[in-house]
């Protein structure tokens, strides 16, 4: 089955800024572009729903509105607090923010360490404020590694430790997780499930759907170079495949190559895949 009533665009954003650091600039949209995209979502007649409603539908719960969309943001850039939140609040739109806990700044202090290069990031006080204002806070590991290249103990620390840190801070369960770079594997997804996460977002460059996998939710990444025509097509339910679909052979090959490189101490990155 295809079509706008079945395809659920889960939009993936990173930074929303006029002047981002060079390393994140390709994955950044300007505040003006972001506002225009939110307006386009409304004009297309999409209903932005909380991520948990999509997860519930995937797990056999209540059905979604006929034309639904979800907004998600990765990493935890400071501009989410100062720029994104006012735009969402003005439009009464829900969103999920996946936080890399090692990149979070203590108020007036520095981050404790992550693999992300330097950038203005949220502090813990801002995260608690966002949580209190209704933004869903999710986990994005401690240090933002490629999870499918890690040994078991380190993988468990990244997945479970992140959850523990966020729940101790917020004093309530935190259920949504996102894979750094979009990288996962069957064994990684099992570890995520065992750690207690009820959902996990990938990339996939595809629409999600009520038939998607709760631990491998497909998303559409919005980049600096995403054409307006492409974004419009997404809001109309076209321009991308609909999940679920089998893992691509090239994804398995790329994972094997990255594991070998990580094993010899020469890791490589690359564009997110599935």
From TrEMBL:
Q: Where in the cell is it found?
A: Secreted
So where does this one cross the membrane? none
A Pfam family that the UniProt record links to this protein: Polysacc_deac_1
Which organism does this sequence originate in?
Streptacidiphilus cavernicola
Q: What is this protein called?
A: Polysaccharide deacetylase family protein
Alphabetized, the UniProt keywords read:
Hydrolase, Signal
What are the EC numbers?
3.-.-.-
Question: Chief subcellular site?
Answer: secreted
Q: Which GO terms describe its molecular function?
A: hydrolase activity
Q: Where is the signal peptide?
A: none
Phylogenetic placement of the source organism: Bacteria, Bacillati, Actinomycetota, Actinomycetes, Kitasatosporales
- Domain NodB homology per the UniProt entry, residue ranges: 67-274
């Amino acid at each position: 089955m295809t079509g706008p009533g079945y395809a659920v665009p889960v939009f993936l954003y990173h930074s929303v800024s006029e002047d981002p650091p060079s390393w994140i600039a390709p994955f950044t949209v300007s505040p003006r572009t972001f506002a225009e995209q939110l307006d386009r979502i409304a004009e297309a007649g999409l209903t932005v729903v909380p991520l948990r409603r999509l997860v519930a539908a995937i797990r056999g719960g209540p059905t979604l509105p006929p034309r639904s969309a979800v907004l998600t943001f990765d990493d935890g850039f400071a501009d989410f607090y100062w720029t994104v939140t006012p735009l969402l609040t003005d439009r009464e739109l829900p969103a999920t923010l996946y936080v890399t806990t090692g990149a979070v700044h203590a108020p007036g202090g520095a981050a404790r360490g992550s693999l992300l290069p330097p950038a203005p990031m949220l502090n813990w006080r801002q995260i608690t404020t966002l949580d209190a204002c209704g933004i869903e806070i999710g986990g994005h590991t401690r240090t933002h590694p490629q999870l499918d290249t890690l040994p078991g103990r380190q993988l468990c620390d990244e997945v479970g430790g992140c959850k523990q840190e966020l729940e101790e801070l917020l004093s309530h369960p935190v259920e949504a997780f996102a894979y750094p770079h979009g990288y996962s594997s069957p064994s990684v997804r099992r570890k995520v499930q065992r750690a207690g996460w009820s959902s996990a977002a990938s990339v996939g460059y595809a629409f999600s759907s009520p038939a998607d996998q709760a631990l491998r939710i497909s998303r559409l990444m919005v980049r600096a170079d995403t054409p307006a025509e492409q974004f419009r097509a997404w809001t109309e339910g076209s321009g991308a495949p609909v999940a679920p679909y089998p893992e691509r052979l090239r994804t398995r090959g790329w994972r094997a190559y990255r594991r070998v490189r990580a094993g010899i101490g020469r890791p490589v990155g690359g564009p997110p895949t599935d």
